[in-house]
Amino acid sequence: MQELIEQFINYLKGIWLNKIFIVLAIWVICPVGWYFIWKMPDQYQANAQVYVDTQSLLRPLLRGLAIQPNSDSQIRLMVKTLMTRPNLEKIARMSDLDIMSKDQSGFDEIIRDLEDNLRIGSSARENFFRLSYSSEHPETARNVIQAALDVFVENTLGETRNEADTAEQFLERQIAEYERRLLEDERRLTEFKQANAEVVGTNVGNFYGVLQTNKSRLEEAQLQLREVQSRLTSAQAQLRGEQANLDNSADSSGPGIETEFDARIEQLQVQLDELSLKYTDKHPNIIEIRRRLEDLEKSREEVIEEYKEAQKQVASGGPGVGSNPVYQQLKLTVTQLENEKVSLEVRVKEYQTKVKEIEEKIHLVPEIESQVIALNRGYEITRSKYNELLSRREQARLSQNADLAADDIQFKVVDPPRVPQEPTGPNRLLLMTAIFVLSIGAGVAVSFLLSQIRPVVLSGSQLTLLTGHPVFGTVSLANGNSIVSKERLQKWVFIGALMAILAVYAALVVINLKFG
Question: Is the pTM of this model over 0.85?
Answer without folding.
Answer: no
